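Lab notebook, page 48
Experiment: co-folding of the full assembly
Goal: obtain a model of how the components sit together before planning crosslinking
Operator: M.T.
Materials (sequences as entered):
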Amino acid sequence: MTSPAIRLLWCGDTALTVEFGDRIDPGLNARVLALDARLRDAACPGLVETVPTYRSLTLHLDPVAVDPARLEATVRDRAALPVPVAAPRRVWRVPVMYGGAFGIDLDDVAAHHGLSPTAVIERHAAPDYRVVMLGFLPGYAYLDGLDPGLALSRRSTPRPTTPAGTISIGGVQALIASIAAPSGWHLLGRTPVRAFLPGRDPVFLFEPGDGIRFVPTDPARWDALDRAAAAGDPVAEVVR
Amino acid sequence: MSGRLAVLACTGAVGLQDAGRRGHGRHGLSASGPMDALALAAANALVGNPAGTVALEFGLGGGRFRQEGGDAWMALAGAPSVIRVDGVAVADHGTFRLPDGAGLTVEAPRRGVFAYLARAGGFAVPERLGSRALHQRAGIGGLDGRGLRAGDGLAGADDTPSLDPGFLDPLPLDTDLPVRVVLGPQADRFTPEAVALFTDAAFTVSHRADRMGIQLDGPALAHGPDGYNIVSDATVMGSVQVPGGGRPIVLMADRQTTGGYPKIATVISADLRRVAQRRPGEALRFRAVPLDEAFALARERAALVAALPRTVRARGAGLEDRLAGANLAGAAVDALSGEA
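Observation: model returned without errors.
Model output:
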């Protein structure tokens, strides 16, 4: 069976985007991550770095060193290979303080779906999520796996700022935010985990393809965990 | 003894930049690095440094400094700025000595936006993820993850005793020339009229312009029937993203790594500095070029950067030598004005 067609989209002379589709789809993301792994292993002159997203892989290039035709051929060749069914590289347990001041939209999301806040927490913490993209801002982890029964289109008016560590949903997507930023998503909770912490080794905790499990955690533990995380303790643990 | 540059005052945005931080787009961190890479390379060439050595980047700003604990050789290139050492004017695009104890004043530029102050040997600030470039939004690089302010001190790194002081012809800012783009990656998400308008119309740099992106005023660019939301994909420095209102934004060095708006075109790497050096209120036109031409211009630019150290001319060299140097580098010879 041949793989569905890809589109090669040049972004000026410094990048080539390999587009597998234009939808949010775990199958597309698996193909993105498979090609990412293959190209990182392959010798591609002029390839500086790769950026996987939901449905495309962008190759950042040194325009002086790259051979565009050869690169296109390499990409088509590697993208046509079968995609292995990949288990997550590793699975993280991420503590989350839900509701109240930590998740100011929890009650509204519950009311919208006719659920109790506790039921929303249970449904949000139940799935094994997969990191499909780290992007927009440093360490922002976009997750696949949200219970469709929780999906809710974004707020009509974005908030000018939301705190670091915000756990939110927007449409069918779920997000772990690393640093404070404006957001139009619905805020369910907050994690003390620093997905991005300059000065810590590693600076970035998560990688594309990682698994994530949310662990509802007593808000009384916030101060201790937050202090530990600020001092460089991951606070999240790898369970597999 | 490498000395130290004490920061007495800063105006505008002043931060440290080197060639940029690569490899972490996959973690959501854009490369940062200089807004005008040619100007950074020129400042470094004047003090004998490799092109991407860390230097001060001034964005429509200036500052007052004092050299302490030893002499330093320095140079400023990019947007033309008045520089004074202990009150005495020295030329930009030329090497100057900053003696121990001397005061240095850099005024906000007369034209253009970004100027680079390089020191022979560079500055001794720690690398973060392989680079010293400041990414302000991420709070990484620079001095403790931030820009410079009064009270800071920048220790000098290794001195380069073999330095030959000299000068370069001032770099043209090219703010009157069109900005060349390659259409795409999502030009097909716009009406054909909008794509034609994009290269026909005059835009103006708005006041919403910084190291993350430069928003343009001008005619609104209409999206096609599929609207203005796409599933997020990656951006590059130079991506021309068009949100729902139809006003294009050129994403720059500290941009978001991914975005959910269609990108009508991409500024070619050689012309990024033409965007960066335009001030709010200045006009800008785009011209579409084929991809081959973008690669050829990138090679030309790389050759120019590689030739900069050979292009630095000794003070007092003859005009013919200077022109030969300029031609060797492929630079526009508009330098007859001003210095001759």
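Interpretation: Chain A touches chain B through 46 residues (CB under 8 Å).
Next step: discuss with group before ordering constructs.
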